[in-house]
């Protein structure tokens, strides 16, 4: 098999033993039609030289990668789903397929969605619709372009089965997705161990997470180690929530089994991107109370962290854990400034002034109903883009009297030399790359009607121009 020197297998999760996962077998599918191969990330992890047949063997038939997991593992976890505790879940249509190191030595997971039934499938068929797989590709690519810490859609095969679904026209086409991410250890992984009153296993898992993901704390022991672990997760989750808010992204299902200990966005179901600023905007049709609405996402993540803290209370005093949980609000504020200023390419000023400026931005966007992505497109590099903004389809919004404080705020936070950034051809276009729901449905319609993927591929190419313009592109092989 033509793996390169940058393929570095390290299946550590399997070494934790049988208390954390179950060995499973992949389903056999009648068809394997490749719909997405993420070649840039494949090169980065030493799998870019795989032939088409080898890619199919590993990511459609799930033959083991060299020196990696065999068999794959369905991970065990519980979770609060819309704040109702569910002890009957786990990897119900996916498994952890492989683990490997990147060029920086970080452990990465290759895991599946739609690869067949497991002990946790309950009444499900273990499958993923093709539309669901295509949507996950679009979400991950767009979020990566916007600088969000996200799992990558690594591979997507159409698998030739007819599925029955209540939320899609049936029969629906089937697929199997492979995602690349930093970890699939969820808040709910710890909740399950607490549910079964296994502080010994909680400690084993904490030690694993410290050693693999937060090695700066390996010198700590006992309660201090547990508290430090929670503090790291709190900080990472706060940064993630902040980055969603800057991206205008609504995850839709922020259950504790959909949040990982690395602060990485993953598992894209009923996601949406905002058309305009709407704090009450929801992604899931079944979120009738608006629990996971756009403006409530920081609250949802904070609540989920408190549930993780509750699980860790079996091995650490509540007072220490509460002190770590209290770090969420300041970490979120710092993350929001960083994410917003990165997206607008602004320089930071004084803390209080920057927070007031951002509050003005959010308030003005809600009141004016300017296009979310259009605003960020028009004011990238702040005041250096004033002439561009004057030619924008949204120019009339910037003539409003209540925009004057924002114009002044941009001027105070614009660095010199911004013309270099604005030379990228992307910034000459009048409108930005967007991913609102009407576009997603328009991309799917020709696929459903006549198997025409040209619009889908064109959208991915368009997203790549946004990645390049914002400096968030994956730049190919790393030896």
Question: Would you mind describing this structure in some detail?
Answer:
- Helix 6 runs parallel beside helix 8 and helix 7 packs antiparallel against helix 8 (about 320-325).
- This protein has helices spanning about 40-45, 50-60, 130-145, 185-195, 200-215, 220-245, 295-310, 320-325, 330-345, 350-370, 370-380, 385-390, 405-410, 420, 435-450, 455-470; strands at about 10, 20-25, 35, 75, 80, 85, 95-100, 105-115, 130, 150-165, 170-180, 250, 270-275.
- By secondary structure, it is of the alpha+beta class.
- The two termini are about 15 Å apart.
- The protein is globular and about 65 Å long.
- It contains 16 helices and 13 strands.
- The chain has 4 domains: about 10-185, no CATH class; about 185-335, no CATH class; about 345-430, no CATH class; about 435-465, no CATH class.
- A hairpin with a 2-residue loop joins strand 5 (about 80) and strand 6.
- The strands form 4 sheets. Strands 1, 3, 7, 8, 9, 10 and 11 form a 7-stranded antiparallel β-sheet that branches.
- The model is unreliable at about 475-479 (pLDDT under 50).
